[in-house]
UniProtKB/TrEMBL annotation, chains A, B:
Protein name: Cytochrome-c peroxidase
Gene3D superfamilies assigned to the protein according to its UniProt record, in alphabetical order: Cytochrome c-like domain
Span of domain Cytochrome c: 191-305
Signal peptide: 1-19
Organism of origin: Vibrio chaetopteri
Length: 328, 328
């Protein structure tokens, strides 16, 4: 009886922390997505791993946003067609549907618009939408799958990118330690991690890194208080708006799964998460963290690693006589 | 009663065709492999998808032997480190444990020996065994997995390649239409496919393409009757033995899943399976096939596509401060 009472009290305590934390904490729980069209998800998964969307037939979406490695390639900037080196760090595909815009500079409004970019970027997949559609249409199985998913014989880049975006939406990472804690499980975090989270809020990190993504909800200047030292020439959002005040303004990246998504920053210059935290505090908030503080914040950040998606490799249907040959 | 009798008679007919075909046909059934050590398989799967076994951290075993595309990359020859173009067509990993030796020229006796090659080949992964082991040892989760799989703290390239080879052994493709037919299911093949198989035997293809792999059991000269026209300078087995009579002698490749493993031949020069059949008949057997004959044989060859392996992508453990950085 005594035991039951304790259990009940814990349950009540949990419920109330849950309610309290859910409403008051700046970072919100990530939930798995439901209700997506299965035919579109499956088709999108196949296209996600489809190297024939690239000129060389060797680069797929997964090459730079690898689901096996936190949805990134763990390179400062990606390697593309003919070993071209990319201009900016590849952001993670995990939970990416929750970003308010896509790309570092926000030039795509959603995942569907984003997915069209790399296919025809000469330093990424180096193909064209026309050639990509020609390739897919030359393969009877794809024609069948598109018909199943979209109810019509004809398809264009619109359906291709819609399917890819629909698959990407499945790539949520729920049930991180932090989300368990947000839901009321006090044992999910260590004392150091709780203290790190308190510091994260206290120092002002949540001014930008909030919401379910702990980021991805706004633009911010990189180097708000002090200039960010980098050799990377990217001007950020200025490239989209043409406005000088958008120079070095980027979308605030998500901190979900951040322990997996090194190296950090848009230039991929920092490999050490604790150092990245210290640099951010310095140049964005004008605060010098003690090693103890940055260590605690880093300990908290590792609790944002969620359950990684279980993705079974698709089997790509073979090319036909009509399929374009790889351009090596 | 009449119906039951007919069913019984069909069953008897099936059993006897099974027994007869199993013992008399030159191509044998492929069965799934059983009894492998699960810890080694799982570790090997992780290593199979591990780009940190390459200098650039972008190339894994799966890059050139893609389980999503018949265990190959569907390129004439593979793209390696810094976009180096390989010297010979990548053979399929599917069912590869059944080959009597590994590589086109047989320079590795088994999959474990083979797996050590690409890691330190400068035009493939361009790493070294020492650096690869250093990378894996810098990651605590790998140390733990190796201990679980091999029962000791220390590991070397021997355990790495053993784990990869153990995973590769799981990549069998059973239950092809042809295997169903071999097991007595007459309805598994069409009339054209059965006729194609009869021609395949009658023309002498099974002299080399026999056993469970329909190949992979012997060496043979490429251009036995007439010279094979190619720009590819590979001399085949002569590179291993130094003997002139081994010039242009290669391991006979498997025909399992051949509809997926284009382009064909060691130089990857032929994309069309029917044309590949005609060329083989001409230069290996001195026979000119009619288009009807090569079409039938091709129809038979497509029945060798088996159930493709279901592989769930692993989640690779993150690097640490001690992990070597990618060399781009």
């Amino acid at each position: 009886m005594k035991k039951m009472l304790i259990v009940s009290l814990i349950a009540v305590a949990s419920c109330s922390s849950y309610a309290a934390r859910q409403s008051s904490e700046p970072i919100k729980v990530i939930e798995p997505i439901v209700g997506l069209d299965t035919a579109k998800v499956e088709l999108g998964k196949t296209l996600w791993f489809e190297p024939r969307l690239s000129a060389s037939n060797t680069i797929s979406c997964n090459s730079c946003h690898n689901v096996a490695t936190g949805g990134v390639d763990n390179l400062p900037t990606s390697i593309g067609h003919k070993w071209a080196v990319g201009g900016i760090n590849s952001p993670t595909v995990l939970n990416s549907d929750l970003n308010f815009v896509q790309f570092w500079n926000g030039r795509a409004k959603d995942l569907q618009e984003q997915a069209a970019g790399p296919i025809e970027n000469p330093i990424e997949m180096a193909f064209s939408h026309e050639l990509a559609i020609g390739t897919l249409k030359s393969i009877p199985q794809y024609r069948e799958w598109f018909k199943e998913a979209y109810g019509k014989e004809e398809f264009t880049i619109t359906e291709v990118t819609d399917a890819i975006a629909t698959f990407e939406k499945t790539l949520r990472t729920p049930n991180s330690k932090f989300d368990k804690w947000l839901k009321g499980d006090d044992s999910a975090l260590t004392k150091e991690q709780v203290e790190g989270y308190a510091l994260f809020k206290q120092k002002g990190c949540t001014a930008c890194h909030s919401g379910p993504l702990a980021g991805g909800q706004m633009y911010q200047k990189m180097g708000l208080v002090k200039a960010f030292k980098t050799d990377n020439p990217d001007v950020g959002r200025k490239a989209v708006t043409g406005n000088d005040f958008d120079k070095y303004v980027f979308k605030v990246p998500t901190l979900r799964n951040v322990e997996l998504t090194y190296p950090y920053f848009h230039d991929g210059s920092e490999w050490d998460l604790q150092k990245a935290v210290e640099i951010m505090a310095d140049i964005q908030l004008g605060q010098t963290l003690t090693p103890q503080e940055s260590k605690k914040i880093t300990a908290f950040l590792t609790t944002l690693t969620g359950e990684q998606p279980q993705v079974t490799l698709p089997h790509l249907p073979p090319s036909t006589h009509g399929t374009a040959r790889p351009q090596i």
